[in-house]
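Good morning,

Attaching, inline, the backbone tokens for the sequence recovery test we're adding to the shared suite. The designed sequence is right after.
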């Protein structure tokens, strides 16, 4: 079992920055690929970013490339999402997700159903 707890959300103006954190329980965090997803009101949950267990690969949806950075510290069982140059359209609840690396192949990292552990979410609101 893996428990995920997100933090770092809040209200920020357009152009501002936030850093989300996702703390994971368990001793095998380094075996998991991690993802960040977001869900705006009335919309489906969408992929934002993902990182492989060894940080050897990072992936982003096009709309956040160059603005967001995903990273992880396996010694702290934590994955981060640094969000810069925020826009109103980034407003959403942000979720982190985990799945054992062996079960994530190809572009599965971008599909919500790939992940079997989810956090409770943290609200990010970007004002215009």
């Amino acid at each position: 079992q893996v428990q995920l707890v997100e933090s770092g959300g809040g209200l920020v103006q357009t152009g501002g920055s936030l850093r989300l954190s996702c703390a994971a329980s368990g001793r095998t965090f380094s075996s998991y690929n991690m993802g960040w997803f977001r869900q705006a009101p009335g919309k489906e949950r969408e992929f934002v970013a993902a990182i492989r267990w060894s940080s050897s690969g990072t992936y982003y949806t096009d709309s956040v490339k160059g603005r967001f950075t995903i990273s992880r510290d396996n010694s702290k069982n934590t994955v981060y999402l640094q969000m810069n140059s925020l826009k109103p359209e980034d407003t959403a609840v942000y979720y982190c997700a985990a799945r054992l690396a062996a079960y994530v192949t190809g572009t599965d990292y971008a599909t919500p159903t790939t992940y079997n552990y989810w956090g409770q979410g943290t609200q990010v609101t970007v004002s215009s």
